[in-house]
Design goal:
0% strand
Length: 181
């Protein structure tokens, strides 16, 4: 006899589908930002490297590496585009029918682990960048004051948001499972 999955491929609550879709959209937006950086680095678009959301918002050393045309680093940027796009599959596995190809515990655990890692990364870096901005610690030259502010006010909260979306998806899916029992 075939046993029903404790985490249905498409959970019965709109909240799970909404959270999963938002988490996937976050990951795709993250991939799109990396795509922007990858294209700027690959085609030497200096207006994009130094401009809004450019490499200098991430760090001086990274920006210098991009400006130097370091092929290894540019390849790493392209790989990050792929990894971030694939990250969207984790919450989607909980809300799309193809997610049933994977065991239920793996889908929820994957979303939970990804959420914890993303949220902790954003939180810990946010604390570190706050210490830099307030003068409690020195800002490394490789990062720079400009990038430290961008991290504190945009990049760190963005990582935290992604983590919270992944965690919400996992939590809501677990709740849907408990109700289905």
């Amino acid at each position: 006899m075939h046993r029903a999955s404790p985490y249905p491929a498409v959970p019965g609550t709109r909240a799970v589908r909404r959270a999963g879709s938002l988490a996937a959209a976050w990951a795709l937006l993250f991939a799109a930002i990396s795509l922007y950086w990858s294209l700027a680095a690959s085609f030497d678009w200096t207006w994009a490297i130094d401009g809004f959301l450019g490499a200098y918002t991430v760090g001086n050393e990274i920006a210098r590496t991009v400006e130097a045309g370091d092929r290894g680093f540019i390849a790493t940027l392209w790989v990050s585009v792929i990894i971030k796009a694939l990250l969207a599959l984790i919450p989607l596995a909980l809300v799309q029918s193809w997610g049933g190809l994977f065991s239920s515990w793996l889908r929820v655990a994957g979303c939970l682990v990804a959420g914890l890692l993303l949220a902790l990364y954003g939180l810990i870096n946010g604390i570190q960048h706050l210490a830099m901005i307030t003068g409690m610690t020195t800002t490394p030259e490789g990062l720079g004051e400009r990038a430290a502010r961008w991290h504190l006010f945009l990049w760190d909260p963005f990582w935290l948001l992604g983590g919270l979306l992944f965690l919400a998806t996992a939590w809501l899916a677990r709740r849907a499972r408990a109700r289905a029992r």
